[in-house]
Amino acid sequence: MVFPVQFPMKKHMLTLSIWDKDLLSSNDYISEATFDFTRDALKAFHKEEIVHIKGPEGEKFWIPCSNSKIEAGKVVQENLGKILVSMSIVPKGQAALAPVGLGRGNPNQHPYLPPPEGRFSWTWNIGKLYEQLVGPIARRKILIWISIIIGVFILIMCIPMIIAGFITRI
């Protein structure tokens, strides 16, 4: 994603709002993550060079996500996990030399953003729809039960022939 940033400022903060994507109803707010990058922003402003913001883990770092809720009349921050982020500050002149698209738009480079994985996609193919809606463990259990039911059905249908075969031999 590309964000224009004004320099210099007293404090540079990035707040990411995390929402789920609903197909049939409005999207729901989940949490937010706030990150202070003032030190790196000032470094980029004074040196006029690309600054890759690094955390303790390297160029990709985790930002804690939280949500405010009211308990006993007090506002309490509820910890709701972490989000993995990588961020670079690129001066306007250098950004013009190596353009990037907005989000996954063209040109999708510096860094390349792969398409999201694990999202539901509607299809008329019943097999693919079944794979998306039912997990691998549940699919295995369903297959086992269907096999047992078919086996019992075949056995029940064959019992009269088996009994008739025994009767004719007597």
Structure description:
The protein folds into two domains: 13-97, no CATH class; 126-169. Helix content is 34%, strand content 27%. It is built from four helices and five strands. It has 170 residues and is α+β, with helices and mostly antiparallel strands. The N and C termini lie far apart (84 Å).
What is the rounded Rg?
29 Å
Question: What value does the average pLDDT take?
Answer: 86
The count of helical stretches stands at 4
> Strand pairing plus helix content: what structural class?
alpha+beta
Strand arrangement within the widest β-sheet reads 3-5-4
Distance between the termini: 84 Å
User: What are the low-pLDDT stretches, counting only 5+ consecutive residues below 50?
Assistant: none
Please, how many domains? Answer: 2
Largest sheet: 3 strands, antiparallel
Molecular shape: elongated
What's this model, at a glance?
The protein is an alpha+beta fold. Helix content is 34%, strand content 27%.
Summarize the helices and strands and which ones pair or pack:
Layout: E1 13-19, E2 29-36, H1 38-47, E3 51-53, E4 60-71, E5 74-89, H2 92-97, H3 126-133, H4 136-169
Antiparallel strand pairs: 1-2, 3-5, 4-5
